[in-house]
């Protein structure tokens, strides 16, 4: 008996579109960019004008969403695709940004960075190095 030669069932297309970081740049800053990373991640670096609602808060904060197409973004695209699925099921028009803020940054698009926290170890190290450079510059010529 030969196995059936039925075609594989086609998977349903995703109910949302996916674009590249360059595709988002073509509509930004007019687009509503929703960043679903954690508050901590968003506070370190974000697309100017983006709205931050962490993925785990999204279902309880639907009233905070603008009534327009939402361009969803995270660090790499995984959480934003989860958000796109959830929002699309609720009737929102969504576009997932493939590669997230990582690809946005790598493509040379604008990112706003938060100043380093004084309690962050790398910030202390930078400040210490800066202090050493300043001390070196203040030394009179000829002293080593």
Terminal-residue CA separation = 90 Å
Give the count of structural domains. 1
Largest sheet: 5 strands, parallel
Q: How many β strands by DSSP?
A: 7
The assigned CATH architecture is 3-Layer(aba) Sandwich
- Which structural class is indicated by helix and strand composition? alpha/beta
Q: Helix segment count?
A: 5
As a whole number of angstroms, the C-alpha radius of gyration is 23 Å
Could you please say which CATH topology applies here?
A: Oxidized Rhodanese, domain 1
Strand adjacency order, main sheet: 1-6-5-2-4
Helix content: 25-40%
How much is the average pLDDT? 81
Beta-strand percentage?
5-15%
Assigned CATH superfamily: Rhodanese-like domain
* Name of the CATH class: Alpha Beta
H/E element order = EHEHEEEHEHEH
Structural shape: globular
**Uncertain regions spanning at least 5 consecutive residues:** 122-133
Overview in brief:
Helix content is 33%, strand content 15%. The protein is an alpha/beta fold and 144 residues long.
């Amino acid at each position: 008996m030969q196995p059936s030669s039925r075609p594989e069932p086609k998977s349903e297309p995703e109910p949302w579109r996916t674009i590249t970081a360059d595709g988002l740049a073509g509509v930004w800053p007019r687009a509503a960019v929703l960043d679903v990373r954690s508050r901590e991640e968003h506070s370190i670096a974000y697309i100017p004008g983006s709205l931050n609602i962490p993925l785990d808060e999204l279902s309880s904060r639907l009233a905070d969403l603008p009534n327009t197409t939402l361009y969803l973004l995270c660090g790499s695209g995984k959480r934003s695709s989860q958000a796109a699925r959830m929002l699309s099921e609720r009737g929102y028009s969504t576009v997932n940004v493939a590669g997230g803020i990582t690809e946005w940054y790598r493509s040379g698009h604008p990112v706003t960075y938060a100043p380093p926290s004084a309690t962050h170890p790398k910030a202390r190290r930078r400040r210490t190095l800066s202090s050493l450079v300043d001390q070196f510059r203040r030394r009179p010529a000829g002293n080593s």
